[in-house]
Amino acid sequence: MSRRKRQNIHLLSKMCFTPLTIMVYLAFVASGPRRIEAALSCTDSTECVALYHPNSRCVKNSCSNPFSSGCLFNMNTTTAAQNDVHFESVRVCNSDDPPHALEKGLCRLSKFNYTELRINVGNWETTAFYAWVAQILLSELLDVPVSLEIGHGIDSSKPTLNFYDEENSFPYATTAYDYASLREGNRLSDCLSTNDTSVPCSHAIMEVWNGQTSLLASENTAGHIEPAEGNGMVGKLGWYVPSFVIERHPEVSSFWGLQNQREKMASMFKRPYTWEKYCQLLSPTNCSSSFYDGVARRWPETDAERGVYYNSQLYTGHFADTAKNNCTANPTTCSGHIVDAPCSWSTNLEQQAFWNDIYLESDGPNEPNDSYSYGQMIQILRAANETKSNIIMWWWKPDGLVLEFAGTDAELHPVTLPPASEICVAKRVGPGVNGRCSSDISVRRGTKAGSCDNDHHALKKVVCSRLYSDTYDVSPPRRSPAYDFIKSIQVTDLEMEDMLKHWALRGVDKYGYDGRDAVCTWVRDNLDDLQRFIPRGYPRTLDGRNRYKESYMYAAMAMGIVALIVVFSTTFVTYHQRDTRILRLANVQFLILMLIGFSFVSLGAILFATQPSLVSCTMRQWLVTIGYTLGLVPLVVKVGAINKLVRSARKMKRVVLSRKYLFQVVLSIVTIAIIYLIAWSIVDAPTRTEEWNLSEKDLDFITVNVDCSSRYQFWVYITLAWEFMLCLSACVLSVQARKVAQEFNESHLLFALAFSHFAFLSMRAVTQILSSTGSASVRAAVASFLLSSDVLAAISIYFIPKFIIIAKKKPTALKKVTISGMSGVSGASDFSQGGSEA
After folding, report:
1. Which of 207, 367, 571, 627 has the fewest CB within 10 Å, making it most exposed?
2. CA nearest 827: which of 656, 705, 671?
3. How many CB atoms lie within 10 A of CB 766?
4. What is the DSSP secondary-structure string of 223-291?
5. Nearest to 444 by CA among 456, 457, 428
6. Peptide bond into 398 cis (omega under 30)
7. pTM confidence score
């Protein structure tokens, strides 16, 4: 029968005979990264609703995580905080989410575009629970994406410890303290900014024990991390024995009863056997499935089964003497067995045992200190409880296993060692390959001065040093609350024990959903108190109104459309009356160019009244700049040519200016403007930008000004200067042309046109200078109104008087003058004193 089928049978039996509770304890693999597969099998969602949560569903024969879209979003809140915080939307996405999470609506993108915070998690439960508390509050209250680093970087092919994992995965980290990942996070700042996201990267570790003091100091000195700060909990490392051992041997509760007792230790504390080793060496039936020997129901079938020390269904575990327990053969080296932790943890067991003459040694598979992995330590303790074998081990508080066995005959009690002191703590062997992980046992044992007990001490949390600058280099409206939150949050021993008790006693899916339910329930029930860790001015509300849909924007757009219609109408009339003398003298082709320019400006006015985008921001500047160039340059060139001809005539000089030459001048000037605009668009194109501002009344309310801008503002100022230069040229020429023959003299119109442009241009310049203040949409509307008004004023000043003259058809007395090349029709214009308008 397969393991999954046995689990189903066990589940159904419990559903029938107990009030919806199941104890699921699965074996840990021997070493390395571990994924605890504890998701309950199901055939129907009703099973998941009964055992998990109303939002859990049966997906691919396993119950899904009901909190995949958010803890608070899916948990009914009953606290007073519900009046202030509304969980109306799912949590924000993070890099540990599967690609389909956003598409399925399990998460949303952060409205504030905060950089993801990545928390490094050690390979024990309390550090995971602490990280989950932070992940829930940051992801669901503060809009900060949070992911958890367990040693393999961001790799979708590997399991994650993401609280929101749909499959309720509960993998354990590859190392206890991954300082390399903190260094990588300090180097990159944003762990998602690299192409190789498989490299472990993190910004914070939420739980660090005092055995790491020297490493913390060196990392801080190197500038990788900030000084460590308390995380709110008080820890106690040490030696522990179950109650049933103390009942048999009360003396083992103190080092006085352990010292200089070589033979007693060797006979009392036997060594644990793996399933395979037991079957090979000790089983009377060779672990035959046909004959149950009371220990193993069959031979182990997989590599994972071969290396385990306990399996709740198939292997009770076994303790027996080995050659190391034989004091007859080895009277000076025999020893009893003690379960030690990996050397990367904060264990000084070898130093304490050796210098206190306690003849106990660990005999695990992991070098260099013959330790056991975290999973193996739990297996050995469960095997000892199952078989009631004597056991002594290195362990710690607070921890879920301690709470699980509390009140039973397996309750863990600390063993008293020589009292701790500051001198002793300073003399302990430190971490690393030159300390507890040295291959030289004499180095690991250190000196007698450091062999005292572990005292209660404040647990620490650390953040990479760059997180502060990365946070405070950002403007206040866009500043992430992650740094201040991580620095301020505290979880006490009692609070952590509440979560651990819930986790240990729930007994449905211990290494999967139960931990998530414990953490989410605690956060929900303590939400009021947790509010004090939320930085001032958070959580923030983003003003979601589209200010480009306000009534004044529609009015500006309407005026732009009116201006465009007027330009088209003027163009139609000009073309229709192109053969009239007054328009021929004004040169129809140049008038059409001016009107094309005014149409561009009108289109620019319309774009100023629309929602900014990359295209519209660029087109605004192109249309307005080219429009004003076409609107003024033909007139300036024409008047300049007339002035030149008049001056030459007074000197009795013949000057011939062809129409082609004048158009080439206009084209050359327009080309200069186009080249400038091309350079601007390539180097620093105007684009849509969002300017965020904190409300002066409410520090948690952000108003958003959507505008168009480049990185450097001098581009805009150059275009304004260009337009000012054109206006100035027009003014100068209008003054010079005041003595030109009446029929050619447009000085008063040119001056009025130039003055009008100058007035509106000055107001636009003021608007640009004040671009850092006020609403961007209001500024855009003002600019749109000014552009439209400028066009309408230009039409009224320059074209309407000509149309009025045409409409009245009054004869005009003219002096005959011939200026070669000035007619837009035949190459010569005749000015006579008599005659009438043709």
Report:
1. 367
2. 656
3. 11
4. TSBPPPEEEEEEEEEEEEEEHHHHHH-GGGGBGGGTTT-HHHHHHHSPEEE-HHHHHHHT-TTTT-TTS
5. 428
6. yes
7. 0.75
Residue with tokens 């969002």: 690
| Residue with more model confidence, 276 or 659 | 276
Give pLDDT, residue 820.
Answer: 39
Close Cβ partners of 395 (under 8 Å, ≥ 6 residues apart) = 237, 238, 239, 240, 377, 401, 402, 412
Angle at alpha carbon of residue 805, lines to 802 and 806, rounded to 5°: 85
Is the pLDDT assigned to residue 769 strictly greater than 60? yes
> Strand, helix or coil at 694?
strand
- Looking at residue 648, its pLDDT comes to 62
Could you tell me which residue, 826 or 786, shows the higher pLDDT? 786
DSSP 443: H
Sign of CA dihedral 247, 252, 253, 254: positive
The two most distant CA atoms of the chain are separated, in Å, by: 144
762 vs 810, residue with greater confidence: 762
For residue 574 the two structure tokens come to: 């000009």
Q: Could you tell me where the beta strands, DSSP code E, fall in 640-789?
A: 687-694, 701-709
Q: pLDDT tens digits, residue range 193-244?
A: 988 888 999 999 999 998 888 899 999 999 999 999 999 999 999 999 999 9
Alpha-carbon distance of 376 to 378, in angstroms, equals 5
Task: Kindly report the three-state secondary structure assignment for every residue of 165-184.
Answer: CCCCCEEECCCCCCHHHHHH
What mean pLDDT comes out for the span 757-771? Answer: 83
Tell me how far CA of residue 606 lies from CA of 547, 595, 599, 758, 780, in angstroms: 16, 17, 11, 21, 10
CA distances from 210 to 122, 421, 470 (A): 14, 14, 28
Contact 794, 631 (CB under 8 A): yes
Contact (Cβ atoms closer than 8 angstroms) between residue 655 and residue 723: no
The rounded mean pLDDT for the chain is 85
